[in-house]
Amino acid sequence: MKELFVAVMFMFLSGCQPSIESELEGRWAGATTAGQEIIMIFKENSELNLQVSEDIGQGIYSVNGSSNPYDLDIDFGDRGKIATIIAINGNALTIENNGLGKARPLSFSSKATTLTKQ
C-alpha cells in the first residue's frame, strides 16, 4: 500500500511541473556577445518573433524537453532553419547556436547569449 501511495504522489507531482514550452512562453530580452540587442517572444502556438538590432523575423519553434541541454529548433521559412541548445534557470534563458543551416552545438561556449524574461 505504501508503494502505491508513493507512486501516485510521484505521478501527481510530476504532472505539476511546468513544461519547457510553458517556461519559454513570453518575452525574453538581452544582448548578443557582439552587443546587438535581441528580443525573442515565444508564443503558446509555437510561433516565435525574433528581433536582433533592426532585423526582425518570425518563425515556428519546437523544443525537445528531454534532452540536456534542451534542443530548440527554429524554422524561419525561406530564411532557413537553425538548431540551437538552450537552458532555462529561473528568469534567465541561455541560448547557443552555430548559425542558420549549421549543425546544433553540443555544449555552451563563451559566445552563448543569455536573455532575461521580461
TrEMBL record:
<protein>
    <recommendedName>
        <fullName>DUF5640 domain-containing protein</fullName>
    </recommendedName>
</protein>
